[in-house]
Write a structure and sequence with these properties.
Number of domains of chain A: 2
CATH architecture of the largest domain in chain A: Orthogonal Bundle
CATH superfamily of the largest domain in chain A: Winged helix-like DNA-binding domain superfamily/Winged helix DNA-binding domain
Number of strands of chain A: 3
CATH class of the largest domain in chain A: Mainly Alpha
Oligomer: homodimer
Distance between the termini of chain A: 27 Å
Number of helices of chain A: 6
Shape of chain A: elongated
CATH topology of the largest domain in chain A: Arc Repressor Mutant, subunit A
Order of helices and strands of chain A: HHEHHEEHH
Structural class of chain A: alpha+beta
Chain lengths: 106, 106
DNA sequence: TTTCTTGGTAAGCCATAACTTACCGTAAGT
DNA sequence: ACTTACGGTAAGTTATGGCTTACCAAGAAA
């Protein structure tokens, strides 16, 4: 359904780098821009795209905005990939994934 | 490493549709083009990109070329996604995936 | 209340990528 | 041998998307 946005969001190398930087911990726009060669507005625009793809989320904290990874988009992507394993293991995999998602929420 | 090619290969909607059409069974270029609104050369070009991303493979059969899905690229992508589940379940997931790949090869 | 920081948005530029038509090589069919 | 089917490649066009600078709004700090 929303594969389009997710795939194209992660297709850009700069955007993927930003996304990866969020893997360790939530960061502000300024922090993210510091690790990038592109300008801060560019980072803002990338974050917008990632947000639309449900790959990151924000919480404003006074002056700044703290971005963090949101696994929702990733989960969708994983489900998409899974349906290319057409054998019985696909279902098995899906089940495992489901269980782990539950755990992951804690 | 080669995430770039894989992500951008699947980011294009037409290309993804072609890829999905191969899910059921291997097909020739003509067959794939028939299900598409774009021209046959366009399909050829898309297949080239998918091939570079290790998402499809070809075997020539006389006059025609039979394209089929190659899970190598998908596997790489899945591994990439897995490393965003940073908890202990990531390792577990990876193990499961490995086992299932082995099984899948049969 | 100024001033500085933080960050989103607008406008415009430019490179890339997806498409087209035209062409060519090769294998089958007649 | 000729013709038709199949499909890859070249060249050119156009739209999209990633970048920049400039600008603006809102919260801290002075």
């Amino acid at each position: 359904m929303a594969y389009q946005e997710i795939f194209s969001a992660l297709a850009d190398p700069t955007r993927r780098q930003i996304f990866e930087h969020l893997r360790d911990q939530p960061k502000t726009v300024g922090e993210l821009a510091k690790g990038q060669t592109v300008s801060r507005p560019a980072v803002s625009q990338h974050l917008r795209v990632l947000q639309d793809a449900h790959l990151v989320s924000v919480q404003p904290q006074g002056n700044r905005r703290l971005y963090s990874i949101k696994r929702e988009g990733l989960k969708e992507l994983r489900d998409y990939l899974d349906c290319f394993w057409s054998d019985a293991f696909s279902a098995y995999r899906a089940e495992i994934a489901k269980v782990m998602d539950e755990k992951g929420k804690e």
